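Review session, final week

We close the course with one last complete record, chosen because it touches almost every idea we covered. It is Ribosomal RNA large subunit methyltransferase H, a protein from Aureitalea marina with 157 residues. Go through it on your own first, then we will talk.
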Amino acid sequence: MKISLIAIGKTDKSELNTLIDQYRNRLKHYVNFELLVIPDIKNVKNLSRAQQKQQEGQLILGQLKSGDRVILLDEKGKQLDSVGFSQFLQKQMNSGIKRLVFVIGGPYGYSEDVYQAAHSKLSLSAMTFSHQMVRLFFTEQLYRAFTILKNEPYHHR
């Protein structure tokens, strides 16, 4: 199974990119993982929030393939602890899907079309984080989940 993380906009903090890359490299031992960054939409000042969500939504949907299992990282999604997330991943891997896709939306969330394409929603926290930080937190949690599944000492129970 391949795991993809789709995110809107680039990360402009080199420190965050360095940390994200460290976890991406660690993940190579467990899973085929890719981070797909959709460039920021141009001229957003001339767009309403709804128009911006719609345009971002079309770009997100353009990255999806038939047969993908799509999980939105959304504040209204189900919250799991790290062990629960690892169990969720195990179920996805056991289901035989080819690609599990997690999506980080833009600053105003997702268009209705993206919500319709999604299979479920997960929340990383009840708190709100910047989109740039979510990439790091998610990538670290993905790595942590695989170490839990392999019973490796990274996660302390």
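Two points worth writing down before the exam:
The chain has a mean pLDDT of 94.
Helices lie at 14-27, 49-63, 82-94, 112-117, 131-149.
Good luck, everyone.
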